[in-house]
Amino acid sequence: MKHQRGVVMLMCLVLSLLLGMLAASALRDALLETRLSGHLLRSVQAFEQAEAALLEAASQLPDSLPECEGCLPPPRPHALDGPWQRNACGYFMVQNLGLTERAAHVPAGESVRLFRITVVSEQRAARQVLEAVYAVAASGIGAPRRILWRQRFKEG
């Protein structure tokens, strides 16, 4: 009789150990899922901040911004190197690309001034960078039209 009781206790200990390992594995998976969903939430919030900053910057395009010659997009926007301006939702940079009559999504022959707006979200944890080109009628009448849009990702 004593021999059988020892085997039952050993089996209970082994089963308890297996159940403990299963619970620890489930807890680890739940923590990983929580971290991933938190990162996704921060990323979406940063994207929305960048979009709001872009819309705010586009609504206040300057009339007297000098035209740039062969101006490239900011090389490292995630680092905020250069002459960035601040608005309520983040940072932005506006570049006057000049006049053209061959802009995409604009009727042929219509003269428009193109502006490149690059914005960086306020949030640092999951910083987002958006870039858009807006067309403003050369006469200055009418609202700016977004003709190109892209999301820039951090390099290296």
Folded structure, characterized:
There is one protein chain. With 156 residues, the chain is α+β, with helices and mostly antiparallel strands. The chain is built from one helix and five strands; from the N terminus they run H-E-E-E-E-E. It has one helix at 2-59, and strands at 85-86, 90-100, 112-121, 129-137, 145-152. Strands 1-2-3-4-5 form a five-stranded antiparallel sheet. The radius of gyration is 28 Å and the shape is rod-shaped. 20% of the residues are buried. The mean pLDDT is 88.
What are the salient characteristics of this protein?
five-stranded antiparallel sheet; 156 residues; 5 strands; alpha+beta
Task: List strands and helices in order, with pairings.
Blueprint: H1 2-59, E1 85-86, E2 90-100, E3 112-121, E4 129-137, E5 145-152
Order of helices and strands: HEEEEE
Q: Please tally the helical runs, counting DSSP H or I stretches of 4 or more residues.
A: 1
C-alpha geometry:
rod-shaped
Which secondary-structure class do the elements indicate?
A: alpha+beta
Backbone CA Rg: 28 Å
First-to-last CA distance = 69 Å
Q: Low-confidence segments, ≥5 residues, pLDDT <50? A: none
Strand tally is 5
Biggest sheet, open or closed, and with what strands and sense? 5 strands, antiparallel
Mean pLDDT: 88
Approximately how much beta-strand content do the residues carry? 25-35%
Helical content stands at 25-40%
Q: Spatial order of the strands in the main sheet?
A: 1-2-3-4-5
